[in-house]
Amino acid sequence: MARSVRTPISPSSSSSSSRSSWSSPSSSFYSLLSSFKASLTRPSSSSSVAHHLAARNNDICRGLFATLVILLRMSALTSAMTDHLTVQTTSGPVRGRSVTVQGRDVHVFTGIPYAKPPVDDLRFRKPVPAEPWHGVLDATRLPATCVQERYEYFPGFSGEEIWNPNTNVSEDCLFMNIWAPAKARLRHGRGTNGGEHSSKTDQDHLIHSATPQNTTNGLPILIWIYGGGFMTGSATLDIYNAEIMSAVGNVIVASFQYRVGAFGFLHLSPVMPGFEEEAPGNVGLWDQALALRWLKENARAFGGNPEWMTLFGESAGSSSVNAQLMSPVTRGLVKRGMMQSGTMNAPWSHMTSEKAVEIGKALVNDCNCNASLLPENPQAVMACMRQVDAKTISVQQWNSYSGILSFPSAPTIDGAFLPADPMTLLKTADLSGYDILIGNVKDEGTYFLLYDFIDYFDKDDATSLPRDKYLEIMNNIFQKASQAEREAIIFQYTSWEGNPGYQNQQQIGRAVGDHFFTCPTNEYAQALAERGASVHYYYFTHRTSTSLWGEWMGVLHGDEIEYFFGQPLNNSLQYRPVERELGKRMLNSVIEFAKSGNPAVDGEEWPNFSKEDPVYYVFSTDEKIEKLQRGPLAKRCSFWNDYLPKVRSWIGSECENKSSTSASAAIYEMKMQQLTLLAVAIILTMVNSIFQ
Prior knowledge:
Layout: H1 18-22, H2 27-39, H3 48-84, E1 86-88, E2 93-95, E3 97-101, E4 104-113, E5 137-138, E6 145-146, H4 158-161, E7 169-170, E8 175-181, E9 219-225, H5 243-249, E10 252-256, H6 262-265, H7 283-298, E11 304-314, H8 316-326, E12 336-340, H9 353-366, H10 378-387, H11 390-396, H12 422-427, E13 435-441, H13 446-452, H14 467-477, H15 483-492, H16 500-530, E14 534-540, H17 561-564, H18 577-596, E15 615-619, E16 628-630, H19 634-691
Parallel strand pairs: 2-5, 6-7, 9-10, 9-11, 11-12, 12-13, 13-14, 14-15
Antiparallel strand pairs: 1-2, 3-4, 4-8, 8-10, 15-16
């Protein structure tokens, strides 16, 4: 996106306020009108022709004058209206726009910078707060999307296209979006008497202030973090439009861009002693943390309560919510989070420092910057990496993709933002006072199965998969597991009845969904409850009637997002009545959770989730389905969370026993060899003495 998005829309002035620049007509404009009016009474020529022409000109001028007066009044009205949409943040004033949704007005602010552009010397580094600005910043345009590649496996297919960037791609992408209901009691700038003005007074034209107020008032704030495997994603996608959520729920909603891929997670600090900040890793998470702090500081300016903040996100965004709640960097900043299909203990959502360094060095070499020089001349190597074209880095990083959901970028156990592996962090945390809403969709794995094995499957029609192909795919997916573990997984996900061909496809999808999403979520939810958090679990089982993906793919990863955002309430979209009702129920659950920490609505029962009582709530349009069930997928998740770790430990014990036995045998054999040599030496000595 062009840098003009950060250019103030009014010139800065040290002597005049923003109000005088925008609410009142300029003195020069009034002077022009006065001169124009005076010209109407000037004496004209004495000739009759000249007099006639002068009279006609006067009539024309009077008409023009009347038009100018009307335009002036319209300008003043427009100026007052735009000032009503101008908010003073800690960084500077921003002007938004107003939209009407569901019969309610919502103020929308898009493209507010919360950090300096992470370009040039700031590439790969932690974010730096944005420089303050003085003129009013135009916050009416969508911001740039952080650098990433597009998915184009199915050209022209809108089911894929909705996840691709819908704004220009740029490294200069650290921006914020905010939706605020118009009826929010926004806080305004201080008057000459030092008092505060409410939006309900005649002082609406004053700029709203970010000065902290009493924390007992203000609206709840929901903060969305997008997913995309830490490789893609954007807060600007249409599906994340929060107009309906803000209007219907009477809440503030915010979202922000954060760096993805190598730009957000390049981790080379362990091999650059003394220069760790050149590429510390996890800067995408540091972006998120800075955005949260900016929102905390500016909550009051938009009518929100800084002590009433809720994080929510899906997939990598959900894992990010998890990270922000657990990291010592942000612990306690927010104590309420909604996690949709993603937790930090999932195999794809974190990596060791050693693995991240290995991937980082490979990228450096692929960019022709010579990773072997990192220990002795890190500055030269990183200077080289900062000169590499962003597109080159964006493309080359995918060389380290190593299989389904094995992305080359992920949150790294760096000793700082993530000082230990996720489960270790959780097991030592006191989460009393934390509220968690967590859950999954029915068919988490099919989307990834299609993309990673596109030569085997069709997005539209089910595939009858022979046994040999089934085994080939399963062994590929779980290639990092031991042979014994793979055999156990294959046994668990083998169809023993029905049509094995089509069932093979379904079983692989279940294995992927269970291993990478549902069962890690199940395990993490239990641990959260054990550490004192109030946990509510949901399970989304509805396949939208207008889904563009094949029937065999079921309820896809991400299908619940549009319902939680209230998109089915948009009458211009094609939803069935029962889907609109489901959307209303799910949106209300999110809003109620943000307000109270409990997602139950309309007096419905929704008990807390725990290991002892793993009750969850089913979001479905099928009235025959029990809303409260236990699990989810209790038997299948017990396989992953309980049985398979035992298999792994048995294998480890067996290896240790074999290793110990082998070592003992080797020592015994060595000692026997030594004794044999000693005996031979003695015999030779005796023989020599006899013959002497």
